[in-house]
């Protein structure tokens, strides 16, 4: 069983991935952290020094590499589903779970954090809403399951995921 968590920046993919790791004992792959570690610099530095396309290529390469893995939960960077190839790779060997949140929730979470280059000049709900709208369709098309995280604890989110996974399994029997 593999799970890929997708969704806009600040929807809590990393937190949910860590919780799934703890409870279901799946190996966790934090894409941004692994890419940054391998490149010996921050995501922000990769964007500024090498450009976004270079970063996006690293994401695709990493997803290819993860194809051979089993029992992993992948916390994807928010831009991963923007490439059709990436969605194909994720779909091949896992369930794609989209986390959603309101622009207000996102803003609250990313306000003081400058590690995300694409949100640097977008620290207001309208700018975030616009960016989310552009991405929403792509995320939803990729997703096998959509979970709203607003006002929910990680435990509640996990319960919902499990419930939906159970239903999906029953539909496949
Ligand atoms: C990005 C999301 C970030 C990171 C990079 C680009 C995006 O990951 O990959 O800053 O395009 O949405 P998080 O979603 O984990 O913040």
General description of the model:
The protein has 173 residues and is of the alpha/beta class. The protein contains 8 helices and 5 strands, in the order E-H-E-H-H-H-E-H-E-H-H-E-H. It has helices at residues 13-24, 31-39, 43-50, 52-66, 84-92, 103-110, 125-142, 154-172, and strands at residues 3-7, 27-30, 72-75, 95-100, 145-148. Strands 2-3-1-4-5 form a 5-stranded parallel β-sheet, with helices on both faces. Helix 1 (13-24) packs across helix 8. The protein binds shikimate-3-phosphate (S3P). The site of shikimate-3-phosphate has 10 residues, from loops.
Q: Summary?
A:
This protein is α/β, with parallel strands linked by helices and 173 residues long. It is 57% helix and 13% strand.
Which keywords apply here?
173 residues; globular; binds shikimate-3-phosphate; 57% helix; 13% strand; alpha/beta; five-stranded parallel beta sheet; 8 helices
């Amino acid at each position: 069983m593999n799970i890929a968590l997708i969704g806009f920046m600040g929807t809590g993919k990393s937190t949910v991935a860590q919780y799934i790791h703890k409870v279901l004992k799946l190996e966790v792959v934090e894409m941004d952290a692994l890419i940054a570690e391998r490149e010996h610099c921050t995501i922000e530095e990769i964007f500024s020094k090498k450009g976004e396309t270079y970063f996006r290529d690293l994401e695709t390469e990493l997803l290819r590499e993860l194809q051979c893995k089993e029992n992993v939960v992948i916390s994807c960077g928010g831009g991963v589903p923007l490439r059709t190839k990436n969605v194909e790779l994720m779909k091949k060997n896992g369930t794609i779970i989209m986390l959603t949140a309101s622009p207000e929730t996102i803003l609250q979470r990313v306000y003081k954090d400058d590690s995300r280059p694409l949100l640097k000049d977008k620290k207001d709900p309208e700018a975030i809403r616009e960016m989310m709208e552009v991405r929403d369709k792509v995320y939803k098309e990729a997703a096998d399951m959509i979970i709203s995280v607003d006002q929910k604890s990680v435990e509640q989110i996990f319960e919902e995921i499990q419930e939906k996974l159970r239903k999906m399994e029953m539909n496949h029997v």
